[in-house]
Amino acid sequence: MAKKDLNIHDKHHRQKMSRGDIVFHIVNYTVFTLLTLVCLFPFYYLFINTISDNELVRLGAIQLYPQGIHFQNYVEVMRIEGILDALLVSVARTVLGTLWTVGGSAMLGYLVTKQEMWLRKVWYRLIVVTMYFSAGLIPWYMNLRMLGFLDNFWVYVIPGLVSPYNVILVKTFIEALPPSLEESATLDGAGYLRCFFNVIMPLIIPILATLCIFSAVGQWNSFTDTMMLMPSGKYYTLQFLLYKYQNEASSLAALVRATQDSSALANLATKQTALSVRMTVAMVVTFPILLVYPFFQRYFVKGIMIGAVKG
């Protein structure tokens, strides 16, 4: 019976829509569908070129659908020396860096909302100032070197423990919450840590999920710190190897071909080229971070809107 009533309601709603509403919905869905396809096509194009006949890819014959499908490119790229270690380093820095950054920013954002905090306005303004003024690249490098962070994995995590922008978002989000929630917990004897973890933390999940996306993408895509702070190559990341391999794709393709057996080498469809190496490595580097968005997307809009505007 309820299903019948729902169908009658939907039918009545469709009848109430004017011609202008119908045209608007058609145009709206059409535009957003086209925008979605435009955003997805580069990833699709990259993927079909990595699984297609390498000779056809080299000639530019692959446009809309794959031809001569094979997965040998991925097998050969994963055999490149150092790429699995770099993958492990990238995953570790992304997970640890994201947890530390979000946790540190959330805690500091909560503290600066407390009126009783000693010199609260001064500390908060000093945090904000760092968004606009920087000592520069050379002092940054010298400071990290003197602290012993060269060829040290923790350089990926500790220097970014607190992000001023994240602190502002968390602070604004918390200030939009009803003060009575924390006051009631305080009356029951809860301290600051208890209030933060038991009362505030569950309520600020949307903004924390948003910060997780920002931090994870930033950590995964970063490679300049690896370039400057890892001279021995001990903790190379996947993104830095992508940068390196993009510049050395021709010699790398020759190295991969040298490790292939003679039958594979005779087959132009799977013979590694500079272009196939570039595209395959780019796909290997890009795909993992794409998996992050589906888990946090539902929190993203709410977190940004509430965290950016107080009220």
Provide the structure class. mainly alpha
Distance N to C terminus: 42 Å
Work out the radius of gyration: 26 Å
The appropriate CATH architecture of one domain is Orthogonal Bundle
**How many DSSP E strands?**
0
Which strand-content bin applies to the residues? under 5%
Biggest β-sheet description: none
Q: State the helical fraction.
A: over 70%
CATH superfamily of one domain: MetI-like
CATH topology of one domain: MetI-like fold
**Number of helices in the DSSP assignment:** 17
Give an overview in words.
This protein has a domain at 83-236 and 294-308: MetI-like fold. 71% of the residues lie in helices and 0% in strands. The protein has 17 helices and no strands. The chain has helices at residues 2-16, 19-50, 54-58, 72-77, 83-111, 120-129, 137-146, 164-175, 179-187, 192-203, 205-221, 224-229, 238-247, 249-259, 262-266, 274-290, 293-308. Helix 5 (83-111) packs antiparallel against helix 11 (205-221), helix 9 (179-187) runs antiparallel to helix 10 and helix 11 (205-221) crosses helix 17.
Task: Kindly summarize this structure in a few lines.
This protein has 311 residues and is an all-alpha fold. It contains 17 helices and no strands.
List the helices and strands and how they pair.
Elements lengths: L1 H15 L2 H32 L3 H5 L13 H6 L5 H29 L8 H10 L7 H10 L17 H12 L3 H9 L4 H12 L1 H17 L2 H6 L8 H10 L1 H11 L2 H5 L7 H17 L2 H16 L3
